[in-house]
Amino acid sequence: MSSSDREAMFTHINNAMQTVHQSVGLHLRSQHPKGHVVLAAEFQTLEVPAELRHGLFTAPGTFPAVVRLSNGQHPDDNLPDARGCAIKVKLDPAGQAAAEQDFVLADSPVFFAKDAADFLRFLALKRQHTLEQRQAELDFSDPLVVKPNANAENALKAVKQRQMAEAIAAGQFPALARFAASPTRSLLELTWHSQTPYRLGPHVVKYVLQPSAENAVDTPLDKTDDPYRHAIESFFAAGNTARFTLGVIVQTDATAMPIEDATVPWQGPVVPVAQLLIQPQAIDTAATRAAEARLAFAPHQALPEHAPVGSLNEARHQVYIHSRGTRHANAQTIRRYFGFLASGDFTGMSSCLHDSVEFEDLGFHLIGKTAVSLMWQILCLKKGGIRISVRNATATDTTGHAEWECQYDFLAEPGDPPRPIHNKIESTFQFDRQSGLIIKQNDQCDFWGWFEQAMGAKGKALHLVDKIEDATIAPIGVEEIARRKVRAAGIAIMRSVLEGKSR
User: Fold this and answer.
1) Helices in 238-368 by DSSP H: which ranges?
2) What angle do CA 119, 125, 128 make, to 5 degrees?
């Protein structure tokens, strides 16, 4: 496959996963959305054979770690599902560096897709199945009304059974039959697998996390909504410590242990490289819930000696980047900010702004929270309101981005009929690190597209003059003059509001 074909494939995968994010809610993880617990742990590297002394396993050592246990898909623990165990090893216990080593594991030794191309094919099938399930829930028998299917529960069950049979058929994804396991008594007694391969210096390995016999429990799952969490709470309440051994299976045969087919289990000795100890602790606290929301695990969050390999891991990298961006706390602020705008709550919008915020778009350049809040107050209270839709809100610790559309009525001059505006805007944000509040917002849109809608025939005429100007040697600055007039008009409106004048 050429590099351009690979790039196109990963673009398709990323786009398909954005659809998954939208279906689960942008604030949730698209993969393993239900977290059972987040646990503080201790990661102890062992004395390993000389040929495996690379990266984290160069020498024995002890590091703090965080463990997250999760469901792959369902909120109901009693349904067959893939379970996840993610470990974040903090390589600098003093906190002076941001270096971390993640291990992303599941309770099945194999993945359901062979490689990135196979994974893309699965996403297409999943989209088709989602549409079929929605169709089963609706009644289209009346050409004038769409209503819920009176037999929706049975219809949906039949559709899902047919879809599963289709998905695990030969030529599709037969490994799915082994991928989703039946409920177990406790997640602490499961064996966890990396499923995909990683570097270990010059070697290629798969990771296996094996539980100690001391982790086993005798009681079955309870019938509550969160039996796995309750089982772990009971385990720790009895004073027990959970112990695991992390081992590696080293690739010795490229054919029998392929990199580009994650549906093939690797057979070979498991060489211990580390111990994971989880001491008794309180797990259902506000602090642990907040910690889970901030955590992000990824196969590529790794030392170079432990880098993931294979096209499937490359595809996962794109997925994790998008997931992390959409779930970031600052991305939540952006969505909350526009949510307040959609509901006309300018006070709520103001709560998202830093005192020193700076705002700029084609109509305003405003500095300070008071000025920016006044602008949003005017827009929220304008006759007819403002209707908006937002997509692709992402963020990092300091920056953010969103694409949104707004519709409202614009009154150019008193006595003129209002003109409907439909504007497409791209917003970029900067955030104050300490408070997490918006400290800068810049909105970009098609100026002439907006101007023609707002000014009607006059706007079209000026746009034509601007096009002619662009072809001349000595420009006269039509667009700049128009922009200055728009901005001056916006400031005049703000001043008139403060002076108690109507417009």
Assistant:
1) 286-294, 311-327, 329-342, 346-350
2) 150
